[in-house]
Design goal:
The protein is an alpha/beta fold. It is built from 7 helices and 11 strands. It has a domain of 223 residues: 3-Layer(aba) Sandwich (Rossmann fold), CATH 3.40.50.1820. A 9-stranded mixed β-sheet has the order 1-2-3-5-4-6-7-10-11, sandwiched between helices. A two-stranded antiparallel sheet has the order 8-9.
């Protein structure tokens, strides 16, 4: 890669303010046209060679400033990607999240790691939430000798669809096959309607984020996405080998509330935590699995006492495994 394109003078102030910076990463046109991703960073107050690279989930983008501040306080420079067709990176001609294969994201993950390396870091924690946890897990498995990646943190990774056994064994494979041939076909989504509602400060939560980039509902999902996820999950289900220590975190329970109530504030309402545990246990390597009592799907957006436990568990693990 041409290192002149990785210069720190390509950063501009980010929409989050408070010292956050971003740079736009450009890629060859794909099946929709122009493609970009966005790398966001927030540097620790003290010079450090340690960094974290965070990858968001489905219908999501990076806005979790408390998480970045926690890493900064622990001596990590914080980096996050808004993947192509999400958040800051979504262009007018693109369909949100439209991807045919999760390997498409390898380009921005690899370039982000190159930039982090050029910026004088030699230890990187690769982190991902939900779909980002699935993507990060496979990236780590596919790059076992990457010189920077020293650990993996998966926050409620999307290792299986939260559906019945029949739907997972027969329905999803059928939709995946259709999605391979007819990627633009849409199918009704079963995402829980209370999840984003439980988070946003103007609804029933405490966090501020762009509701166009992280909406309260997704009535349909493109079958291209089902195919891409199913293909990636099949590899996870066979069992992957990781050459780095991995911390897999999940809530202690899954609920599917039909109306607003306490379950929406103390549960994973998106994924089945039993699936996360099952497939984390199939991985080969130094794998730690931690259940977080009353955690939300994005554990770092849970209630304050819950996320304090998340960070305590995370940084204790990092102290043992990476520092």
């Amino acid at each position: 890669m041409n290192t002149t394109q990785l210069s720190s003078n390509l950063y501009t102030p980010d929409l989050l303010g408070d010292g956050y910076e971003q740079q736009v990463l450009n890629y060859p046109d794909d099946y929709e046209g122009q493609v970009v991703a966005t790398l966001i960073r927030k540097k620790s107050k003290q010079p450090t060679t340690k960094a974290v690279l965070y990858i968001h989930g489905f219908l999501d983008y990076f806005f979790q400033t408390e998480m970045a501040a926690q890493f900064n306080a622990q001596g990590y420079d914080f980096y996050a990607l808004d993947l192509r067709k999400y958040g800051r990176s979504k262009l007018a001609h693109q369909i949100f999240y439209n991807v045919l294969d999760l390997h498409e994201y390898d380009a921005e993950i690899s370039q982000a790691l190159d930039i982090i390396s050029q910026e004088k870091h030699d230890k990187v924690l690769l982190a991902g939430h939900s779909t980002g946890g699935l993507t990060a897990t496979l990236y780590a498995a596919h790059h076992p000798n990457h010189p920077l990646i020293k650990g993996l943190w998966a926050n409620s990774p999307f290792y299986d669809f939260n559906l019945s056994l029949v739907e997972r064994k027969f329905g999803i494979p059928m939709l995946s096959r259709i999605g391979k041939k007819l990627p633009k076909v849409k199918f009704p989504s079963q995402l829980n309607r209370w999840y984003t509602t439980s988070l946003h400060k103007d609804l029933k939560g405490e966090w501020d984020f762009n509701l166009e980039w992280k909406p309260t509902s997704a009535p349909t999902v493109q079958l291209s996405f089902v195919h891409a996820i199913h293909t990636a999950q099949k590899e996870i289900h066979r069992g992957v080998k990781l050459n780095i220590p991995a911390l897999i975190m999940h809530s202690h329970q899954t609920k599917n509330p039909k109306k607003w109530g306490v379950d929406a504030t103390q549960s994973d309402v998106i994924l089945d935590v039993k699936h996360i545990k099952k497939y984390a246990k199939k991985m080969k390597g130094d794998i730690s699995i931690v259940s977080i009592h009353n955690g939300l799907h994005d554990l770092v957006l849970s209630a304050l006492p819950v996320r304090k436990q998340v960070y305590q568990e995370l940084f204790q693990w990092l102290e043992q495994k990476i520092n």
